[in-house]
Amino acid sequence: MDNAKIDKNNKLLEAKSLIETSKELVAKANANMQKCQAEISKAAANFDEVKRTFKNVTLKETEALLEKLGFEYITKEEAAAFELSIDGNREKNFAVKNISSGRFTGFILALLFALITVVAWIYFAAKKLNMDLTTIDTQKAMGSVEPMLKWVATDVVPPIGGNVIVAAVLVGLSALIVAWIVYAIRISLKSSKNLRVAQTTLDESTEYCMAQEACQREMTEIDAHLWRATSEVKNLEIVLNEQRSTLKRILHVEGAVEDDKEYHPSSKKVMRETEKIMQTMENLLETPITLDDKLNEQSVQSLNVAKTVYEDYLNRIYA
Length: 319
Hints:
The chain has 319 residues and is mainly alpha-helical. It has six helices and two strands.
């Protein structure tokens, strides 16, 4: 019995340990996810800000200058607005549930079966003594107990020599034994079930954490891409500001467009370069950052093109 009790305690302790481990894993995964979401939100906000500045200020001002010079620039259609969507909480409702030892329900069941045992003694004793239990009122009940115990002491357990007190003790003891057996079975079954549930919970928690980690890796990659894209937009905006200054100089020196007016070849080259930079920036800003909850490969390609354009510009200056 002692070994069985120890085994039950071990199962309960092991189950609780597994549940605590599951809670720690999930809590850590959720904390890391919240941190990751905060970082990517900051990166997205910065990217969105530079996009608004470019479209509402830089792009419009440059378009106006080109229009005065008779150079038509076709703005890229905003087919896809700034899209940043990633499922950072695939198991939104996942939660580790606590387990109960089953002691309370075991205690209630034990009391119930103990009562049933006593009632069974009364029933069989009354039947043997031809007593009608339905006719016994409260006042006569105590008087009916002694004959029943006498029957137990003489017919059921003859060795006690008709001792009513010993018979009462035996009846009470039998009820206690039944209660203990029921309680022990309940605790044993609950301990085994708890261990199975705890192991399943740990497996689910591990799977949940792996999914969250995979999602965090994707979000980290997107976060890094957003910061690189933001930096590249700022680089190209500096270049475009220089181009605008040149366009203003052309407008001042050569004047606005007129019929049959021809600008100097170098001026036309500046206009074409300006158009290329504007198209590159628009393409980078209008391409969705994510696709199917992953970094959009087209956005990566747009960023690479923007880098190339910027590097070419620097090479021409510092070559």
